Amino acid sequence: MFRKILLATDGSEYAFHAATTALEIAKLNPKAHIHIVYVIDISNAKSDMLQYWNSNGADEQRMEKIKPIVDLIIAARINYSIHFLRGEPGPMLVKYANEESFDLVVVGSRGKNRFQELLLGSVSHKVAKGANCPVMIVKTKELKHPKNVSTLKEHLKQNQNI
């Protein structure tokens, strides 16, 4: 079964839904470890620094984005670690997944149409094509993730028809 799981996140609702799926997979193996990976897109890094005045402010904002996912994993008592990488998200996730020999990569899908994907590319598509391990692309309707674990039950109840 899957033990070393890479969960790609950008803090979006799609990433949160992918996290719930990764969590369900991790629960099947008591030795599972979820590696939460946030790739800092180098094309946005300068604007982040200008917006938050320094890299510390940008780092705090990134941690705040992934906090609901971390809270979810902590509540489930699953081993985890957080990794911030810099680069273009698709290629960087592929490189990291292959270098670190993950058993599974879980990534959310934004549901772009074919034209948007052709024009802009898709992180999930790049990862699926380039990773040496299985890749699970979690498609979902638009969700709003809870801000903390106390609202998780309510969130799941509202979205149980996913």
Automatic annotation (TrEMBL):
* A Pfam family per the record: Usp
Q: Which family does it belong to?
A: Belongs to the universal stress protein A family.
Q: What is this protein called?
A: Nucleotide-binding universal stress UspA family protein
* Cross-referenced PANTHER family: STRESS RESPONSE PROTEIN NHAX, UNIVERSAL STRESS PROTEIN UP12
Q: What region holds the UspA domain?
A: 1-139
Q: Known CDD domains for this protein?
A: USP-like
